[in-house]
Amino acid sequence: MEKRSSYRLILMVLVLLMLTACGSPLPRTEEITKSPWNSFKQAMSAYDKIVLNKTTVDELRDLGFDPYSTPNVKILSYLDVIQKFMPTNSVKLEQLPVSVRECLAKQEACIAYEAHPGVIKRKRVGSAIKDLLGFKRRTLETGWRFDALIVLDNGVAVYKIWSGIPFMDSEKSRKNPLGPLQGSGGSLARDALGF
């Protein structure tokens, strides 16, 4: 009987070792904002084709900026546009671009499309024991992010602006010499399972 349980124990240890050798037991996350673009370059190329005072809502749809056919493109009302351009009282209406001021004066005829396509991958690397116990945690982050705002006056693009990160490649590292005994402001279970 003892021999049989010894074999079972050895077999379980071998299976556990093989499973951890096949893949890292550390968490990985992937944040993908679905869009018709697979890269920053593709999104930027579509954005560059928008011609102010000429490109219509139908042409924006063909370029991929359409909230009704493209996932994750948001429609902003003129009140939302005001908040985007004037988040505090220190920004005055006369400081806004002329095309935006004229659009806002038309109220309901003024809307905007906002798009945030991108792919961000996070992968924790290093010793699983040290990571899960909180002694040392390393996270690699890769991907791209593109942000576009297009203001539409009666269905025609009158203002556009973009920002983004064409190439993301960073590493975050955190060391706690006392591991689980050193407080990090959060619960041990949350720290062990997530970011």
The succession of helices and strands, N to C, reads: HEHHEHHEEHEEH
Query: Could you tell me the radius of gyration in angstroms?
Result: 25 Å
Note the beta-strand portion.
25-35%
Largest sheet: 6 strands, antiparallel
Helix content percent band? 25-40%
Individual helix count: 7
User: For the terminal residues, how far apart are their CA atoms?
Assistant: 45 Å
Mean pLDDT across the residues is 81
Q: Structural class, please?
A: alpha+beta
The tally of structural domains comes to 1
Q: What is the molecular shape?
A: elongated
How does this model look, in words?
The protein has helices at residues 2-22, 40-48, 57-63, 78-85, 98-105, 128-133, 188-193, and strands at residues 28-33, 73-76, 110-115, 118-125, 136-153, 156-175. Helices cover 33% and strands 32% of the residues. Strands 1, 2, 3, 4, 5 and 6 form a six-stranded antiparallel β-sheet that branches. The protein is built from seven helices and six strands. It is an alpha+beta fold and 195 residues long. It has one domain (25-193). The radius of gyration is 25 Å and the shape is elongated.
How would you concisely characterize the structure shown here?
The chain has helices at residues 2-22, 40-48, 57-63, 78-85, 98-105, 128-133, 188-193, and strands at residues 28-33, 73-76, 110-115, 118-125, 136-153, 156-175.
